[in-house]
Design goal:
α1 packs across α7 and α4 runs parallel beside α5. This protein is α/β, with parallel strands linked by helices. It starts with 7 loop residues before the first strand and ends in a 6-residue tail after the last strand. It is built from seven helices and seven strands; from the N terminus they run βαβαβαβαβαβααβ. Strands 3-2-1-4-5-6-7 form a seven-stranded parallel beta sheet, with helices on both faces. The mean pLDDT is 97.
Length: 246
């Protein structure tokens, strides 16, 4: 992990799950991690744990659905460390339901966090990365970004969009600015993602399969692998899913 060492990495959704696991793993390998999420107290706890383990970390309270918050996050990282090497767009929500339940507010929430949040993160860091002519933007999609299932239409649409945004970014920036773009697509993972579900039908489904999820550490390892590759190597997509689920 020598290519991870010393890199300044912003991680959204860092207060739990994949974001927390990624922050701890990258800090363990010498990265300078900037944690962002809405739960400020939880961020402080994780930063303390990283520091106690010998790592370097700071945190900022930020809502990815706010372009202003994301810009302030990038500005903070630049003030503290002078550069941004990696952005991990990890924050996401999944209040899945059938279309005929008409949970329009939840559709809006998924679009705001899962799509706009990714775009706002890119917009916040891209100018600095272009100026330094290097950088890496890692966007968390999902296996639902490759296949739609009943109750997942809107969530899947947001994750298909993440793949499209990531590929467009790669085509525009990799050769021109040496900025890498990677999609990480987790399958069922033991995180708080199911907590946002309000549909009784989907809650029941989640209860049946939640125990089959893999550890967030498995996704963190995939993220670390993509970052650690040499600058001339771009990992476009990695899908990680439980062995036990078809």
């Amino acid at each position: 992990m020598e290519n991870v060492q010393g890199k300044v990495v912003i991680i959204t959704g860092a207060s739990s799950g994949i974001g927390e696991a990624t922050a701890k793993m990258l800090a363990q390998h010498g990265a300078k991690v900037v944690l962002a999420a809405r739960r400020e107290e939880r961020l402080h706890t994780i930063v303390d744990e990283i520091k106690q383990a010998g790592g370097e970390a700071v945190s900022v309270k930020a809502d990815v659905a706010s372009a202003e918050d994301m810009q302030q996050l990038a500005n903070f990282a630049l003030r503290v460390y002078g550069r941004i090497d990696v952005l991990v767009n990890n924050a996401g929500v999944m209040p899945s339901s059938r279309m005929n339940e008409l949970r329009v507010t939840e559709w809006d929430q998924m679009i705001d966090v899962n799509i706009k949040g990714v775009l706002y993160g890119i917009a916040a860091v891209l100018p600095a990365m272009r100026e330094q002519r290097s950088g890496h933007i890692i966007n968390l999609s999902s296996t639902s970004g490759y296949q739609v299932s009943p109750t997942s239409a809107v969530y899947a649409a947001t994750k298909f969009a993440v793949r499209a945004i990531s590929e467009g970014l790669r085509l525009e920036e990799s050769a021109a600015s040496n900025i890498r773009s990677t999609v990480i697509a987790p399958g069922l993972t033991k995180t708080e993602l199911f907590d946002s579900i309000t549909s009784p039908e989907v809650q029941a489904i989640a209860g049946q399969i939640s125990g089959l999820g893999i550890s967030p550490d498995s996704i963190a390892r995939a993220i670390a692998f993509a970052i650690n590759e040499p600058d001339d190597t771009l990992i476009s997509e990695i899908m990680v899913r439980p062995t036990a689920l078809a």
